[in-house]
Amino acid sequence: MQTTWKGTISFGLVSIPVHLYSATQEHDVPLHQVHAKDGGRVRMKRYCEREEKEVPYAEIAKGYESPDGRTVTLTDEDLADLPLPSKKIIDVLAFVDAGEIDPLMFSKAYYVGVADQAAAKPYALLRDALTASGQIAVTKIALRTRESPAVLRVHDGTLVLQTCIWPDEVRPAAGIAPEGDVTVRPQELKMARSLMDTLSEDFDLAQLHDDYQQALQQVITARLEGVELPHEEEPGEAPDNVIDLMEALRSSLKRAKGGRGHAAGPDAGPDADEPAEEKPAPRKRAPAKKPAGSAAAAGKAAPAKKAAPGKKTATAKSATGEAAAGRTATGKSTAPRKAS
Question: Which of 126, 293, 302, 326 has its CA at a distance of 20 to 30 angstroms from the CA of residue 146?
Answer without folding.
Answer: 126
